[in-house]
Write a structure and sequence with these properties.
By secondary structure, the chain is α+β, with helices and mostly antiparallel strands. About 20% of the residues lie in helices and about 20% in strands. It has helices at about 10-20, 235-240, 270-280, 340-355, 370-385, 395-400, 405-415, 430-445, 460-465, and strands at about 30-35, 40-50, 55-60, 70-75, 130-135, 195, 200, 220, 230, 250-255, 260-265, 295-305, 310-320, 325, 330, 360, 395, 420, 425-430. The strands form six sheets. Strands 10-11-12-13-15 form a five-stranded antiparallel sheet, with helices on both faces. Strands 1-2-3-4 form a four-stranded antiparallel sheet, with no helix packed on it. β12 and β13 form a beta hairpin. It starts with 9 loop residues before the first helix and ends with a helix.
Length: about 475
């Protein structure tokens, strides 16, 4: 709830600050005025630095996404309601822009939530017996008001993210994402102010371990073709004159119109893959950055024009995944979000799973935006299949057709709230309202994957014996 605070004069501020140890303000909580709504919200102070001989504080707004964290001046803080940090809480640093230690760059075990990305969905029924569902009907008397068949990616920014602070007991030891350590103060602070990628300047959302020398620059210049970064405009322009690359390295495996997908091997094109991971870390809080990219394949989505193929987004997958994950990490760059590219990446990953002949699932945990996009895709794919179905169909049969893993199918059905118990069996009820919502959502998907244009042959990496 927003707090209101009376204005304070400078003398009052100084008296309060003197009563609190200056070095101990990190970790304290107090109301901070947020620019977007001009209201005071409770925030935690994570760090401080001097700008033009004036103290600025890095704050995290409690119950808000970390992408809203920012540096604020003293006049936006209400020192009259300051709360001391909890005993034993980690102390923040007075300098920003620090990078990860070298030993933290190695691939390490991660704690990740095990359930599907449906969040707080009701417990799933047993799927081992593959219950059959009756033909979809529109019986209004048997159905309750159902959730929309597709939560569009446009609404992603308005929904609250899941609480990832406490991972469940079942953990994984491989992959590309992890629950962030809530006690690592350094990585909780954004260290890059702005990046320039092609024709776009973008403010990062999260910490990324770029070299410390770059974190003190107002802008990091990144080549949109080879993804190499420069600390100054002069060196960046010099690089652009020498850079001969006009598309991602690797093989182009799909093209339709101006849309292309490239498959990049993390072992053959290590520098490109590492730079791609660095960019992704700026916008994905849960990503574990690996400097060892050998075990991964990267599928890069680009837009083609007269100057070359411009990076739009990508997803990566492990060459060998014991859990049959078809996506390790997925990102649409902020400047291309809400244009349908997120679902295009997801759809392409499942088309590759269909070619491989096995069901796949994204690696968990999903980001808040990724969770919404996947829920929406699963719902649309399942409803699109069910409305064409005239015979009873089981969950396993839905999995066989869509290559969406069984637990994700059940999660999507429960999230849609369309599983009904009728005459001793589970039924799926699609109401006219839900079908209308589905048609409306599908009409917005202007870009779709044409499976016949995919030029790709899966490789059995286990038989090859090496990556």
């Amino acid at each position: 709830m927003a707090n209101t605070a009376a204005p304070m004069d400078t003398a009052s501020k100084m008296r309060i600050l003197k009563s609190v140890n200056a070095d101990a303000i990190e970790g304290c909580r107090l109301p901070v005025r947020m620019i977007s709504d001009s209201e005071f919200h409770l925030a935690e102070v994570l760090g401080k630095k001097r700008i033009d001989n004036v103290w600025n504080y890095y704050v995290h707004y409690i119950d808000f996404n970390k992408r809203l964290d920012e540096w604020v001046s003293e006049d936006r803080l209400d020192f009259t309601k300051i709360e001391a940090p909890a005993v034993g809480a980690p102390k923040a640093k007075a300098v920003d822009g620090r990078t990860l230690k070298k030993d933290n760059r190695k691939r390490k075990a991660e704690d990740t939530p095990g359930p599907t990305s449906s969040g707080t969905a009701t417990p799933a029924p047993s799927v081992g017996a593959a219950p059959s569902f009756a033909t979809p009907t529109a019986s209004a008397s048997a159905a309750t008001p159902a959730a929309s068949a597709s939560a569009s990616a446009t609404a992603a920014a308005t929904e609250e993210p899941e609480d990832m602070s406490l991972p469940p007991a079942n953990i994984r030891t491989t992959g590309a994402v992890a629950v962030p350590d809530p006690h690592d103060v350094v990585t909780r602070m954004k260290n890059i102010e702005m990046i320039e990628l092609g024709a776009h300047r973008v403010r990062p959302w999260y910490f990324a371990p770029y070299p410390e020398r770059l974190t003190h620059n107002p802008i990091i210049y990144i080549c949109e073709f080879c993804l190499r970064f420069s600390r100054s405009l002069t060196s960046f322009r010099r690089h652009k004159m020498k850079c001969a690359l006009r598309h991602p390295p690797g093989n182009e495996i799909y093209r339709k119109g101006s849309i292309s997908f490239f498959e990049v091997d993390g072992r053959k094109h290590k520098e490109y893959a590492q730079n791609l991971c660095l960019i992704a870390k700026l916008f994905l809080d849960h990503k574990t950055l690996y400097y060892d990219t050998d075990p991964f394949l990267f599928y890069v989505l680009t837009e083609l024009d007269s100057r070359g193929c411009h990076l739009v987004g990508y997803f990566s997958k492990e060459k060998e995944s014991a859990e049959d994950y078809n996506v390790a990490c997925i990102l649409t760059l902020p400047q291309y979000q809400r244009t349908g590219y997120g679902k295009l990446l997801i759809e392409f990953s499942y088309e590759l799973s269909k070619i491989e002949g096995k069901a796949g699932s994204p690696e968990k945990p999903l980001s808040d935006l990724g969770l919404l996009s996947y829920r929406s895709y699963w719902a649309q794919a399942i409803v699109e299949l069910l409305r064409k179905q005239r015979e009873p169909i089981s969950v396993n049969e839905i999995t066989e057709v869509t290559c969406i893993k069984t637990e994700d199918v059940v999660s999507a059905l429960q999230h849609l709230n369309i599983i009904k118990f009728y005459k001793g069996s589970n039924c799926i009820v699609l109401t006219p309202e839900m079908l209308a919502e589905h048609d409306k959502a599908m009409a917005k998907r202007k870009i779709r994957i044409d499976a016949h244009l995919i030029q790709w042959t899966p490789i059995d990496w286990a038989k090859r014996g090496s990556w």
